[in-house]
Amino acid sequence: MIKRKTGDFIVVSTIGEEVKAFLPHPLPPDPPIRFENKLNVLIERATLALGRLDGLTRLLPDSSIFLYFYGRKEALLSSQIEGTQSSFSDLILFEMGNDTALGASTEEVAQHVAAMNHGLQRLRDGFPLSLRLLREIHGILLHSGRGSTMTPGEFRTSQNWIGGTRPGNALFVPPPHEMLGECLGQLEKFLHSDTPALLKAALAHVQFETIHPFLDGNGRLGRLLITFLLCAEKVLNEPLLYLSLFFKTHRSTYYDLLQSIRINGNWEDWLEFFLTGVKETADQAVSTAENLLHLFEKDDRIIKDSGRVTGSLLQLHNLFKKKLIVSTRTAYADLDLGPPTILKALKRLETLGIVEEITRRRRGLIYTYSAYLDILKEGTEL
User: Fold this and answer.
1) Do both 281 and 360 map to the same domain?
2) 118-144: per-residue pLDDT in tens?
């Protein structure tokens, strides 16, 4: 392991005590990262996995459906890392306007979805990945609920810390707010450097978390930054790589490696971890898409072999593919079928074991595509 100095500890006075805050050096690391055999192999494997992932949209009959739900899975996982208690079905029900799912935790996840979509749309429209865009995304991320009092959309103007009850017993104290301008300016410059995209994403994520420029929401925005950067650099045409599940699964290692970089400049171990996460996550996304394709094909065969009202069953099945959770009201609005036909088809799909009624009510019934939900929610269980 190469030992390198990645920043300076400086004494600052905050809330009545003196503490050592960390002021990171600008990227890229100096001395440069050593790309020995293991790292080179990992880069090659991660790049190939991203290529397979980027070709995923050609496998799917409607890639927008997968993107829609996969993005929501990321929002849920990223919010769970920060302590939000919500489930995949809660989020979908919340977006359907179902009052029973209304809650602060679910609303936070929905705001994460909105922030993610805003950032991606801005990039598609040609807006650069910049400090201004990060502030916009942050403003949406913390628009209401927990964190809404933490100056959404604005860089902090006071000292923050990570872990502990005060700066004096914190695990880590980021740079003082008076030096944020310099730190963030250097980070923005690095975002537009000619550093290879995967390496840039790995380094920029750590630097962002080390600077910790907002009073709240840094973890969620820092994880989104990885996906935004890969899309901005055209490594991915669609936002299909999200590392929150990998970081959640290996949370202790993730935090230890961030701290190791700050203390002894151990970028090599971080890159090994990050590239492993990219490959595993990309492979999991491809596997998820393939599992969904197999599920849809299997259930299409079951419906066609059932021999009764096949047309209406297939229409309803296609609606479940797009919405995952469907109420009778949604079915009435979206399908050119009469209510008696829809109710009969729903019951038939339930009998075939394809959908499950989850409300147990006589009216306003809500059904879920159970096996579809099980595939998507893997790793999100609380």
Assistant:
1) no
2) 999 999 999 999 999 999 999 999 987
